[in-house]
C-alpha cells in the first residue's frame, strides 16, 4: 500500500448527491435521542460501503443479518422519498425476501410500479464507493420519475 492509499477515506471521497443526502436524512430520522448528532453523514452511512474483499468474506449461508435488511429498507425508503420530492407522487416500497437472501422489492406510486428490483445475495448488500452508492440511487430515482411522467394517470390514481 502506498501512502496515498492510506489517506483515501473508506469508499473514496464523499460525493455531492441528492440521493446520499436523502439517505442520510432517512437514517437520521430514526435517531430520536440525538445519538448521531455529532456524526457525519459518512459515519452514519459507513455500513453501505463494502470493499470487494469484505464482500467475499461475508458468508451467504443462513438468514440475512437484520442490520443488512435494515440497510436495504433504508436504501429503498430514500429512493421512494426522492421520487416523491421530484414527482409529487408518493412511492411506497414492498419487499419479500427469503431466508436465503433472495427476493424482490417494488416501489409503487398510485397504481403504477415505478421500481421493480430482484435481489440476490442480499447478505452482501453494499457498494464499493460513495459514488457507486449515489449512482445506484440516483439512477433508480430518475428511471422511476421518467415512468411516472410517461404514465401520470396511473401514478396519481
Report on the structure:
α2 (18-28) packs across α5. It is globular and about 45 Å long. A hairpin with a 2-residue loop joins β2 (103-109) and β3. The chain has one domain (15-155): Protein of unknown function DUF269 (Putative cytoplasmic protein), CATH 1.10.3100.20. The relative contact order is 0.18. The protein is of the alpha+beta class and 157 residues long. The protein has helices at residues 3-7, 18-28, 41-44, 52-57, 66-87, 130-150, 152-155; strands at residues 91-97, 103-109, 112-119. The termini are far apart. It has a 3-stranded antiparallel β-sheet with strand order 1-2-3. This is NifX-associated nitrogen fixation protein. InterPro entries: NifX-assoc_nitrogen_fix. It comes from Donghicola mangrovi.
SSE map:
Blueprint: H1 3-7, H2 18-28, H3 41-44, H4 52-57, H5 66-87, E1 91-97, E2 103-109, E3 112-119, H6 130-150, H7 152-155
Helix pairs in contact: 2-5, 5-6
Quantity of strands, as a count:
3
Distance between the termini: 56 Å
Estimate nothing, just give the exact number of structural domains. Answer: 1
Largest sheet: 3 strands, antiparallel
Number of helices: 7
Going by helix content, strand content and strand pairing, the class is alpha+beta
**CATH fold category name:** Putative cytoplasmic protein
Protein name: NifX-associated nitrogen fixation protein
InterPro entries: NifX-assoc_nitrogen_fix
Pfam families: DUF269
Amino acid at each position: 500500500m502506498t501512502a496515498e492509499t492510506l489517506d483515501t477515506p473508506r469508499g473514496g471521497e464523499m460525493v455531492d448527491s441528492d440521493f446520499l443526502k436523502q439517505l442520510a436524512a432517512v437514517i437520521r430520522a430514526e435517531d430520536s435521542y440525538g445519538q448521531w448528532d455529532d456524526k457525519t453523514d459518512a459515519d452514519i452511512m459507513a455500513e453501505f460501503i463494502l470493499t470487494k474483499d469484505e464482500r467475499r468474506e461475508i458468508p451467504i449461508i443462513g438468514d440475512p443479518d437484520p442490520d443488512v435488511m435494515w440497510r436495504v429498507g433504508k436504501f429503498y425508503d430514500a429512493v421512494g422519498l426522492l421520487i416523491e420530492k421530484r414527482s409529487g407522487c408518493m412511492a411506497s416500497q414492498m419487499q419479500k425476501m427469503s431466508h436465503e437472501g433472495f427476493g424482490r422489492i417494488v416501489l409503487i406510486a398510485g397504481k403504477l410500479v415505478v421500481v421493480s428490483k430482484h435481489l440476490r445475495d442480499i447478505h452482501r448488500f453494499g457498494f464499493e464507493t460513495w459514488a457507486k452508492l449515489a449512482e445506484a440511487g440516483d439512477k433508480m430515482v430518475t428511471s422511476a420519475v421518467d415512468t411516472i411522467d410517461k404514465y401520470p394517470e396511473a401514478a396519481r390514481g
